[in-house]
Description:
By secondary structure, this protein is mostly beta strands. The chain has helices at 34-42, 119-133; strands at residues 4-13, 16-24, 64-71, 74-83, 94-98, 101-110, 143-147, 161-168. The N and C termini lie far apart (32 Å).
Amino acid sequence: xxxxxxxxxxxxxxxxxxxxxxxxxxxxxxxxxxxxxxxxxxxxxxxxxxxxxxxxxxxxxxxxxxxxxxxxxxxxxxxxxxxxxxxxxxxxxxxxxxxxxxxxxxxxxxxxxxxxxxxxxxxxxxxxxxxxxxxxxxxxxxxxxxxxxxxxxxxxxxxxxxxxxxxxxxxxx
Length: 173
């Protein structure tokens, strides 16, 4: 089964603090950052971030985040969490304060282990849905993967999960 979008919504991502660690192309291994995610889990790197206040029913729900953008002519990939604007930054972590921004949020359903939820195949799936709806992607901004519990952490009977994928939208589109 190929991945598919099962829900699309336009939402206002609140102003927030992306807190975590920043990686670049030099940190990729076999085209992926999956080894960095493995480090985060094996070393308990999410634990200090999980202490921050969260809004269980809102955008700052405590989900783990992979956020990406082009900056200073290069690609950045961050692993961490979206936290409230005033959340303290634990020692050894970095942060970016992000302004409020309108985003398209896609729920992509598929197999986590096949890789179909990530990279260019997921990007193409979301772009096709943007085009179908007439929504325009913002040229710059943070794209993000949000690993929501339980949508992503609890596979269904077919072994599939849902990855949230967010794309910033051009103003008014």
